[in-house]
Structure formats: C-alpha cells, structure tokens
Amino acid sequence: MLTKEEKAWREVRLNQILKWEENCPYEDFIDDEKIWSIIEAKKEPERQEILEIIEKAKENAYTGAMLAPEEVAALANTKDPDLWEAIFEAATWIKNTVYGSRIVLFSPLYISSPCVNNCAYCGFRQSNEAVKKKTLTMEELEDEIRVLTGMGQKRLIVVYGEHPVSDVKFMCETIEKIYSLKFGKGEIRRVNVNAPPLFKEEYEEIKTVGIGTYQVFQETYHHETYRRMHPKGTLKGEYKWRLFALHRALEADIDDVAIGVLLGLYDWRFELLGLLYHAYSLEKEFGVGTHTISYPRLEPAVNTPITTKSSYLVSDEDFKKIVAIIRLMCPYTGSILTAREPASLRQEVLKKCGVSQMDAGTRIAVGGYAEMEKEHIPEKQQFMIQDTRSLDEFILDLCREGYLPSFCTACYREGRTGDNFMPLAKHATVKNFCIANGILTFKEYLLDYASPEVKELGEKVIIPEYLKWLEDNIPRAAERVKELLKREEKGERDCHL
Amino acid sequence: MRKDKKFLKMLAEEACREFGLKRVYFAEVLGKRRHFLAGAGEVTFEPPQSAKLSGDLVVFWEGELKNKDVFLKFLRKGQMK
After folding, report:
1. With contacts defined as CB-CB under 8 Å, which chain A residues touch B46?
2. How many whole angstroms separate alpha carbon A230 and alpha carbon A238?
3. How far apart are CA A413 and CA A433, in angstroms?
4. Neighbours of B38 (CB within 10 A)
5. What percent of chain B has pLDDT over 70?
6. Contact, A327 vs A335, CB < 8 A?
7. Which of B34, B45, B47 sits opposite A415 (nearest CB)?
8. Mean pLDDT of A328-353
9. What pairing do the DSSP bridges indicate for beta strands B23-30 and B49-54?
10. Residue in chain A lying closest to B59 (CA)
C-alpha cells in the first residue's frame, strides 16, 4: 500500500503528465488497425519476396536505412525453415559488417525498487508485498560498485523505480557517485540509465552528469494491452506520455536514446512493427536513430501470475526469429540480449541473430552484487534471471567461439555521440573503432581480472586475431593500438582511440 | 563561449581548411561524457587529439597538426567573432 505522501507525490506528477499529454506536440505513431492490416496482408509471403528483403537488408547495412513495415511483417510471417536459415545468416552478416565480431559487455545495477506503479507483470509493482522494496544507500552503492569493478566491469545500466525516493535529484547523485569511485585500477566509465519517463527539464538535469544512453521501454505498443497492464491512475498508465519519453529526452539534447519491448504481453509480430515505427519516429523528428533495441521476455516473478500465464509468451524458436528480424529491420542499432535468457539459448542467439551487447555475472536484486554468492534472491528481484554464468565464465565462452569481448566506452568519451556516432553505425564503419577499443579493453581485463584459462586464450588467440584484422584494414590504427598495448602492459589504463 | 551548432560547424570547416586537418569537431564536457555539438570533415579512424578550449568546451581533431598553440588561438579567436 502506498503511504499518504507517496499518493500525494503520484497525484501531483500525474496531473503534470496529463497536462503535458493535452499539449503533446506529437501524433501517436502507433495505429493498431494499420499494423494488423499490414501483418494480415503479408500472411503468406512468397519465397522470392523474402530473398529480396534479405538482400535489401544487407544493402541497408551500408546506408543505415530501415526496412519498411510490410517487409518486416513478411519476415515475421515466414515459415520456410530454409528461408529462416538465410535470415539468420543475414543477421550475423549485418552485425559483423556494422560492428565486427565484438560483443560489448555490461552489467545491470538495480539502485531502487520502490515504485508507485502497479504494472501487472512486474515483481516491483506497489501492491506486491511478497517482494521487499529497497533503495541503496550511498554506502551500499559503493559496495556494489566495489564488487562490479572487482569483476572487471566498466559499463553499467542503472535501474530505478518510479518513486519519490528515486527522483531526478537522487538519480543524478547516484550516477555522480558511481563515476567518482575508483578501486585500484577498477572504475565505471559509462553509466547508461533505465528509468521512468521524465519531463524535458528533468532530462536536462540528468544530462549534466554525463550519462551514456537513456532507455525507456514501451513494454507493449498495443494500446488495449498497454491499458490492461498499466492501471489507470498510475503514472505508467499514460501511454502517450511513455511513447514520447525519448522524444522529450532528445528535445533536452540527450542524444543517445534506446527503445525496447517486453515480449510476452502481446503478439510479437505487432511489437516488432511497434519498435520499427518508434525508430522511424525518432529518425523523422530528430534525425537520430535508436542507439539500442532491447527485447526482454517475460520471466517468472514472485507473486506475479501473468508472467507464466500470458497467452502471448514467446517460445525459444520465435525469440530467435525476433532477434534476427530486429537486426535486419534496423541494421545500425545495438541489439541487447540479457541474462534473463538461459545460457544455452544465449549462446545460440549470439551466434545466429546479430546480437551486439550482453550482460554477464548479473545480479538483479537491489544490493545483489554485495551478496554475490547468491545467484538469486527472489524476494528482492523484479523477475528471475536464467543465465547465471560468472563474467569470467561468460568471457571464456565468448573466446571459445572466437568473439572479441569488449568493455569499450570510448565513443561517448571522445565526442562520438548522437549524430557524430550515428553515421559511423549507419555506414558500417563504427567497427573500426569497436575492434581497436575492444582489443584495448579486453587486454586490460586479461591483465587485471582474467582466469588463467581466459588469459591464455585471450593472449594467444583472440588479441592476435583481431590485431591482424586491424592491420589488414586500418594499419595506422593498428600501429597505435600496438603502442597502447605496450603501455597497458607497463601499467597504464584506459587507453583508447 | 558560443556553443550554437551552426556556428561551431562553420568554425570547424574553417579550421579544417586553414590547418589541413581531416576532421575537427567540438564537444561539451558533461562528467565523463564528451557530448558532440558540431564538426566538419571525414573520420580517419585514427586516434583523435583533443584540447580544452575554455569552460566546458573541448575541440577534437584528426590529422597532423603542426602547431597546436596556433590552432587553439585560431579557434579561440573565432569564438570571439
């Protein structure tokens, strides 16, 4: 139950939100009927049509163009297994063409779980008394960062509930605190944010502390489903407020924004088109695409029956298709696959669906990293995670498959943000930076944190292989990387291009 | 310091021409983030050099620069226009 103060805070904010919606300068770009008519019209696509869409998607990797809604619907309705193999091959090709074979690593960090919303699928909903809500103190936050940096992590997504205890001021204070901490050679260099939608003035405030990307997931783009999942009278109940959350962020000049859906709430084909229309709208209004797309699936949460009973739960087979289609429809975007998914499925999706970012060694309870030996603390978690490999175990698996594990945070610290970053991703040249900085950050990991097995594989196979790629493609950058590797061996850190 | 993007883009174009640089761009310092404002030229994929101009404004450049002091003086003077 919310306290009187919490209710009052919610009411004031809700009124401000309603006022914003009344004067909203944007048209709702999600037309449910139109989306369904597109999906229906492309119910049985011809083989030749799919092959042509695949070719077009590959060409788009060099221009940053996105597929049309009809083309995405056709892919989503494809049934022929041979065509699916061709789609998976294309997804891998596009990802490697744009970003190279590097996988960027990050950790989610839950900072607060109290929330005034009551979303049907969320373990942190205010009415769920089976989950203990908690907000980290500054001391506890420091403990979490000590553990995370001790693992070798450099990049976080911090997560906040929508509540007066975790308002913008608190968000700024905690992010500044994270950036200020240094434990030996360990430090966090990039903090991305997953938090509730804000007003433009609030985004301007959070921009000043130097965040990476601001994520807001629509959860579902289907209006009626959204209404059922997010009760009226709660802040999250306002569809339009959330739909344009990132438009307001861009108005405030936060130019790296990220979208996502929670798969399992509604038909995944509809959600794919919702993501596409969202990316279109950001392009149209601001000329900057979405930095990443996330596609978490519903996972069981304590005392949250819908997470196992929804009639739209997504199977593993469909999940692979969704991730691959996202890569084809929006070739330039980062694609985030989280530890919600089991290890074996993650390895498969990694290999065939064009993923570019993954988390590992993840703990999602508030304060969970300080209790590292416990893989799960269900009564403190929003949902359950499935991949419980440690960061080092995960890196070993990446290396065995020939990927370059990357802790790179260089772009946003070298001014390659917003429309200075997007052309690199849209013209498939960002990999030139990704590989160079991936090598340098992986070397740091090998020097400071790696197990003997990872160290051996990294030094003998992965680094030489990717240095060779760099020598063949950008010889002057390769020379510079070699110099910087020597400096890292002598103890210098944070060398990057 | 002037931070309007149109002006900075023109200044970057001028600086590229004047100093034979491949690329020049400006960014605002926000904590660890260097927030892109405007720039000109082509990316070389070689490490950019950077220097503080004034306040929270930094300049990045790619290509060979013979005299950094003259370059920074040029930009600061340009900022005064």
Report:
1. 474, 476-477, 480, 497
2. 8
3. 13
4. 21
5. 96
6. yes
7. B34
8. 97
9. unpaired
10. A415
Which residues lie closer than 8 Å to A93 by C-beta, 6 or more apart? A58, A61
Decide if domain A4-27+100-413 falls under CATH 3.40.640.10. Answer: no
Whole-angstrom Cα distance, residue A136 to residue A236? 23
CB A217 within 8 A of CB A259: yes
SS3 assignment, position A461: helix
The DSSP symbol for A462 reads I
pLDDT band at residue A17 under the 50/70/90 scheme: very high
Q: Rounded to an integer, what is the distance from CA B74 to the centroid of its chain? A: 10
Instruction: Summarize pLDDT for A114-171 with one digit per residue, the tens.
Output: 999 999 999 999 999 999 999 999 999 999 999 999 999 999 999 999 999 999 999 9
CA dist., res. A299 & res. A7, Å (int): 29
Q: What value does the CA radius of gyration of chain A take, rounded to a whole number of Å?
A: 22
Query: What is the rounded end-to-end Cα distance, in angstroms, of chain A?
Result: 51
> For A241, how many CA atoms within 13 A lie in the half-sphere containing its CB?
23
From chain A, the residues in CB contact with B31 under 8 A are 175-176, 179, 208-211
Residues of B in contact with A420 (CB under 8 A): 25, 36, 39
Substitution target in A419, A420, A496, A497 with the highest count of B β-carbons within 10 Å is A420
Q: How far is CA A363 from the centre of its chain?
A: 16
Cβ contact B30–A412 (<8 Å): no
Q: Which of B78, B72, B73, B63 has the alpha carbon at shortest distance from B7?
A: B78
Residue position matching structure tokens 């919490």: A6
Strand order across the beta sheet in which B33-41 lies: B33-41, B23-30, B57-62, B49-54
Put simply, whether A212 touches B (Cβ < 8 Å) is: yes
Average pLDDT along chain A: 95
Query: Where would I find the beta strands (DSSP E) of A216-339?
Result: 257-260, 292-294, 334-337
Contact A263, A338 (CB under 8 A): no
Q: What predicted TM-score, i.e. pTM, was given to this entire model?
A: 0.94
Q: Is the ipTM of this complex over 0.90?
A: no
Distance, in Å, from the CA atom of A309 to the CA atom of A305, rounded to the nearest integer, reads: 6
For chain A, give the percent of residues with pLDDT over 90: 90
pLDDT in tens, A347-360: 999 999 999 999 99
Give the residue carrying structure tokens 């506890």.
A140
